[in-house]
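To whoever is on call:

I kicked off a structure prediction for a single chain this morning and the downstream step that reads the tokens threw a length-mismatch warning. I double-checked the sequence; it's 75 residues and nothing unusual in it as far as I can see. Pasting both halves so you can look.
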Amino acid sequence: MTASRCFTQRELAFFDGYDCMSHVACESKVYDVLTNFIWKKGRHWVRHHAGQDLKDAPHDADLLDRFPLVGVLID
């Protein structure tokens, strides 16, 4: 699947997993993590939150390749 939507940081912040979808960005790619239990309610091991860029994640970005790619981060 190719990314079909462009997200700004502000738009991505709306997808925080509280009342809507859970999206995260990494290396300018935006992924849908809603269905993964590790991202329940938009939180990942308390350290990371949906709706944010994971540029400071302690693991490789290729772990996110298992999730649907929904867009690209443009800022």
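Update from on-call: the warning came from a stale cache, not from the record. Cleared it. Sanity check on the structure: The CA atoms of residues 42 and 65 lie 18 Å apart.
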